[in-house]
Description:
about 270 residues, Rossmann fold
Amino acid sequence: MSNLELAPSVMRFYGETVNEDSRLRCSADGQMELVRTQELLRRFLPPAPARVLDVGGATGIHAEWLVKDGYDVVLVDPVPRHVERASVVCDAYVGDARDLSEPDASFDVVQLFGPLYHLPNPADRSKALSEARRVVKPGGLVAAAAINRYASLFEHVTYAHLHTERMRASVSKILATAEYDGVRGFTLAYFHRAEELVAELTASGLSDVQVFGIEGPAWSLVKAAEQQPGEGPTEALIASALEAARMAEPYPELLAASSHLLAVGRVHADVGA
Length: 273
Ligand SMILES: C[S@@+](CC[C@H](N)C(=O)[O-])C[C@H]1O[C@@H](n2cnc3c(N)ncnc32)[C@H](O)[C@@H]1O
């Protein structure tokens, strides 16, 4: 589907099934995702105060710390119950990454932490990225997150059920097609390879594009400790896995083992001059 309607399974998943507000706060891999997204993004953000558009910002999990850091954040999300919750944190309204209602060159930063992995059609992802690029000021930053193509391979080992016939078939299909149809469990999703994410940002006209593994190569060890019987992951295990994510950064071959990827790119400062 490539019109501007959100896939019904995405709306249902975030509107009724899942509590997105607790995802990064409660699970160990979610906490790793939050810590690493913060530390990676802070390397590239302009000094506060600056204007940040958080597209697909859900209930404001990232908007919250950005506001505390002194940024002026506006959040856009298609799911009304997300927007209602996010309105406590910052200005927030219902909207779609593919058709932003903001003027050209009106934000210092646009972040897309969600939309790209719920848009399996490449034309839709391209629209979302060109909209982000349109509303960023010359010299500004676009940051986009993706779910790694191979994340489900690692994730379903942590639940110790990858060897079952159903999961083997389901994960094999994701690996082969890069898509999940949203029939059960998670919702309609697209899974990027790191080089593909870089190519998509570059094709949208962004320069100096870089990509990082958010959780790094050891996140699934932490998640397995959480999911399997036992005491759960220790603080030392989580700290070690976070360190692995940092140490892996210079080695692009390790990107494939991260759960999420974060790409950043800039709108060339001469644009519009
Ligand atoms: C997994 S949540 C991520 C939320 C948050 N940004 C984070 O990083 O934790 C994905 C978010 O993307 C939003 N989303 C999905 N499709 C979108 C679209 N076409 N435009 C804007 N947001 C979208 C969903 O409503 C949801 O809030």
